[in-house]
Amino acid sequence: MNLSARIRFAALACAALLPLSMPTPAAAAGYPDGPIHFVVPFPPGGGTDNVSRVLVRGMGEGTGWSLVVENHPGAGGNIGISMLAKSKPNGLTIGMGQTSNLAINPTLYSRVPYDAARDFAPVALVAAQPTVLLVRAESPFKTLQGVIAAAKAKPGSLAIANSGLGTVSHLSAVLLAKEAGIRLLYVPYSGASPAITNLIGGQVDLSMSAPSTAASLVKGGKVRALAVTSPQRLAIMPEVPTVAESGYPGFEAVDWKAVVAPAGTPAEVIAALNAAVNQALERQDVADALKADGSTVMGGTPGQLAQFLAKEQQRWGATVRESGAHID
User: Which residues pair with residue 40 across a beta bridge?
Assistant: First the structure.
């Protein structure tokens, strides 16, 4: 089952099973007996932080629980997720895992201070967000096919910016190049902002960007969007085709977010948290906020997330090894 199918399966299964098998948040007697600390392993204002705050607000309003977002950025998400792994498994410290810290970093870094496969109890998949292939407004490239034709004519001549070595923006470009049979020149930056600045300035030819950033830049006439790496077009950029419909059926590369807790958290607490997450994702205000950010709303059971994580860790780990990216 490919990533798209697994995502759709999780969402459909969530909708089908919620009324029958998922307990309500009150199912864990006496839980929570204090505020729930929600660890976000990235700085305030970024994509993971935005999704986390939308979810936390929905969970709090839906349950009456007190949830507090705590940002612990650093080392590509490794610092915050490591803190979460070492927290007491009582359900009072949970957090947002995502593609980088749970699937990419264990292979990218020579050593990480946690075991992504064993140190966390899956709670629920939350959302998935693609990357968007951009060129500057004055670029001669109008379509993905045009980029690929140029790259095949002169292998390695096109420079593509990304927000850092081993990031989803970098590795999604690696996956695209492999699928298309082309060779690109990868240019890592210290973040998305300098990558976009150099794209607009003409120092690089292409860039992979988050949908919210891409949409605002396209609207401002600074860049042109050629393709999105999600299975379907995005509501905020409906005019932009997917890579799949641009000649590469089945292609997808998304940055997903998932709530996890420390390993050993009681099953009844995990069930309560899972129900709270899924109920929050069913709220119209939460769904609208996530879609406005270019995300696809997910959901599902802890078991489905466990299977999803195992397959994603294998998939992204293989991509990191193929890219040759490594951080000591």
Answer: 71
Distance CA 80, CA 90 (A): 18
Q: Which structure tokens are listed for 21?
A: 């098998």
* Contact of 203 with 195, CB cutoff 8 Å: no
Distance CA 44, CA 21 (A): 35
Q: CA–CA distance from 153 to each of 142, 158, 327 (Å)? A: 17, 10, 32
Spatial contact of 135 and 206, defined as CB atoms under 8 Å apart:
yes
- pLDDT cut 90: percent of the chain above it: 84
Query: Phi first, then psi: what are they for 220, rounded to 5°?
Result: -80, 0
**Which two tokens mark 265?**
């958290």
In 3D space, the residue among 87, 10, 23 whose CA is nearest the CA of residue 276 turns out to be 23
**Residue 131: what residue type?**
T
In this prediction the pTM is: 0.86
CA dihedral (65, 94, 256, 105) in degrees, to 10, reads: 160
Where residue 4 falls (left for φ over 0; alpha for ψ -120 to 50; beta otherwise) is alpha
Written as six digits, the tokens of 242 are: 């997917």
